[in-house]
Write a structure and sequence with these properties.
about 170 residues, alpha+beta, two-stranded antiparallel ribbon, 7 helices
Length: about 170
């Protein structure tokens, strides 16, 4: 017995917009709307949306030159660069990731946590706001191992062995 999902006109427009403008993958749209990937592609083809794997034009974040990138790469990266020189110019201008050298922040966090909790070799110090330079105690958590740390990042219940909020 087959179960067909009937979409409203607004939902179809939302699918087309999400695929075309927000670059949402067809797999994610299929899961959201309870359709198959082929069903999503059928809606897109009827609306004459280009579903090919062709590259799209984006502009370089430094010089503005037009470059070709795949949709997956556009989704994955915030900034795009036409050359290594443009990338380094972007970083030197201070526009890069705010905590590029995160090792220094992580080492500093461990030294701060040691003052309040006895760290062991396998313990992982986690920054709640993901900024490795923000070493306020209320931003720091300690997980027993890397597995618990990853479970926390993936949204599962992982209880830290130490929490800086409760000092």
């Amino acid at each position: 017995m087959k179960c067909y999902v009937r979409l409203s006109a607004k939902q179809k427009v939302d699918i087309i917009d999400a695929y075309s403008n927000q670059l949402t993958p067809a797999v994610a749209l299929a899961a959201k709307y309870g359709l198959t990937r082929q069903g999503i592609y059928k809606i897109l083809r009827r609306a004459e949306v280009d579903t090919s794997k062709r590259r799209m034009l984006v502009s370089c974040s430094t010089c503005g030159a037009e470059i070709l990138r795949t949709k997956a790469r556009i989704r994955r990266q915030l900034n795009h660069f036409c050359s290594v020189e443009c990338y380094h110019t972007f970083l030197e201008a201070g526009n890069g990731f705010p905590y590029i050298d995160s090792r220094a922040g992580q080492k500093r966090a461990r030294s701060i946590v040691v003052l309040h909790f006895k760290l062991q070799a396998g313990h992982i110090v986690h920054h709640e706001n993901r900024n490795c330079l923000d070493n306020r105690l209320e931003n720091l958590r300690v997980f027993a191992n890397q597995g618990d740390h990853l479970r926390h990042h993936r949204g599962f219940d992982a209880i830290p062995v130490w929490d800086g909020r409760y000092l």
